[in-house]
Amino acid sequence: MNARWLSLNFFAYFFTWGIFLPYWTGWLTTVKGLSVFEASVVMGTGMIARALSTLFFFPAAAQRYPLTKLMRISIILSLVIGLFYIPAHSFAMLLAVTLAFNTVYPNLLPAMESGASVLIQSERIDYGRSRAFGSLGYTIALLVIGGLNAVFGNAAILWTMFAGLAVFYAAQLAGPPAVLSERTAATGKSGRGSAFRQLFGMPAFLTVLGITILLQGAHASYYNYGFIYLDDLGVASFAIGLILNVAVIVEIAFFAKADKLFGSMKASTMFLIAAIGSTVRWLLIFLVPTVWMFTLTQVLHAVSFGIAHYAFIRYISGKLPRGLIAPAQGLYAALGMSLSSAFLTLLGGSLYELSPGLAFLGMTICTVPAAVIVLLTRRRFSY
């Protein structure tokens, strides 16, 4: 029953993430009239707000509220703030609403992953299988948006986001696990400051976190400019949805078999595979700027994102006590999924204005160092 709840909520959350992550920059440029650089500033600044929120607000809120209650509050606030996008048209207004939205909505990601890590520890739930439902939600969102855009235009992106958040709230009510309805399930007895001090006192964890930050941050150009890149190549909206879905379909297949294929593999080995695959992915897009090559490299998303993410989740689930999981997820969400992406989104935006392919090539400034760090530290910390 708890595995079913986790799968359902992963599906619902990543349905909304499949709208926000790949389409929001395009929505800002096509519907709200911002330039690519202005949209980059809005999204990059929003990512900084996301980083600060998941770093400070999420661990503090998880200490005060059970994870299930925290998620419900965050969903409702996200809906309310999202409504202000309707009258917002100027750069300043769109920036303000995006800052507010990114202060609340992204906290749902570490909350979901923290809940999954707790359930892995307490019930040995098959994380990969449940997470595969999240990828399925993401891919369905891409298909839905692609179809709606073809019929109603890009204005459908915002309204589909509202519908997705409403469905996510309903999924929260479908028999939540008792262990996630207890405050101690998220942070234990450690306060936020104490938890962070413990984490920063673990060299192996800091190394793993640093590698993950580099590998996940390297997706900044893909997430923010993939839609625009394909649109500039003359691909129709519905076809863009299909192409972006290739990555998620492969990701679903990976997570469905991840525990069986990678459950006994060292995190360092998985990180090295992810770093090499990611480097190859961005190099190919730069060297062969065509629709078919972009589509082909989508297969590598299971490597660049999937393996890196799975390695981090398995590491903290197996090496950290329950009381440190939420703070660790907060650091991962803040630094790996937000702050690094914020700076690299701004870099990618500047490079994209020079040449679209450079935005992807620029991401190798993260992937190559990540591989080097793994090779230099894997024996010392034995992770």
From TrEMBL:
Q: Name one GO cellular component term.
A: plasma membrane
Lineage, uppermost ranks: Bacteria, Bacillati, Bacillota, Bacilli, Bacillales
Subcellular localization, as worded in the UniProt entry: Cell inner membrane
Q: Where are the transmembrane segments?
A: 5-24, 36-58, 70-86, 132-152, 200-223, 235-255, 267-285, 291-312, 332-352, 358-377
Primary subcellular site in the record, as a coarse category: membrane
Q: Which organism is it from?
A: Edaphobacillus lindanitolerans
Membrane topology value:
Multi-pass membrane protein
InterPro entries xrefs: HcaT-like (IPR026032), MFS_assoc_dom (IPR024989), MFS_trans_sf (IPR036259)
Q: Which GO terms describe its molecular function?
A: lactose binding; lactose:proton symporter activity
Q: Per the record, a Pfam family?
A: MFS_1_like
Q: Under which name does UniProt file this protein?
A: MFS transporter, PPP family, 3-phenylpropionic acid transporter
UniProt domain Major facilitator superfamily associated: residue ranges: 5-357
Give UniProt keywords alphabetically.
Cell inner membrane, Cell membrane, Membrane, Transmembrane, Transmembrane helix, Transport
